[in-house]
Amino acid sequence: MPIPEADFDDNDESLDQHVREMIRKAPLPQTPPALELATRRRVVQRRLRKRLVIGTMAMAVLAALLVWTGQKPNQVAQQGNPVVPSSAPDLDSGELDSLFAPPPVDSLSVLDRRQVVAIHVLQQLEERR
Amino acid sequence: MDDDALLRRCQRGDDSALTVLVHRFQDRIFRLACRVLGDRARAEDATADALAGVWAGCQSWRGEASAGTWIHQVAYRVILDHARARRRWWRFWNWSETDDAGSAELDPAVIVAKQSERDDREQVVAMVLKTLSAEDRALVQMHYFEELPLAEIGEILGVSRDALKMRLSRCRQKLRALLGGFDADT
Description:
By secondary structure, chain A is mostly helical.
């Protein structure tokens, strides 16, 4: 909002003039000649920095997307049925039963018969003595 | 070509407009930076930053303020940023020292001693201005040196009418106390 000049009355114009003269007479250094070059250098630096930031952000978004899309199939595989590799050979159900069946064990009747035979043989040997 | 047309060319990315922009505004911005920062090398740095900032941010100019005022607004903010950055740095490394940009009290005896030396007017003015804050130094430079209209100063500094009046009055009182007895013609 513009400020009307009339609102800035100076009660002490001579003091104001004195201060103005003092400040105007105190010399300031000359403007350096290479200022345009320095400005152009900064413009280029700003442009490069902007591109670097945009590039870094794009890479970060891409990496996040890759990680996210890579995790999704793994989660589905863990939640569903185990995946059978397609290169596995085809097996019959009989073969699978024999593969996963418990190891064979002699039945009690066989053991009992063996014991009877052994006792009979020992009795005969004793009688021969 | 007036300032508005120049800024419109900058908005279109016209490279030759940057050259014109630098040559037209570098002196005034450099003087302001020198006055606020009190150091030639830092002022040069801040001026280049300010002009690059104008070029980079010219798309945000909508024509509400005149192009010249808008450019000085941007430059003023950049220069203040440089002044504040120095204060932060100085406080970090040398916290026991007093802040050189604003709060330091100047001994009147030093001023009197300097008044006796004919060639020290520049030093005296610099010392007196150092007692002001960076914002007030910018105000003094725009009002007393550049003699900008107060309406434009208010727009550049982004302060209300009452605040500007109060700040100017405060600066004047301080300068009166320190420079009042110093003869401008010595």
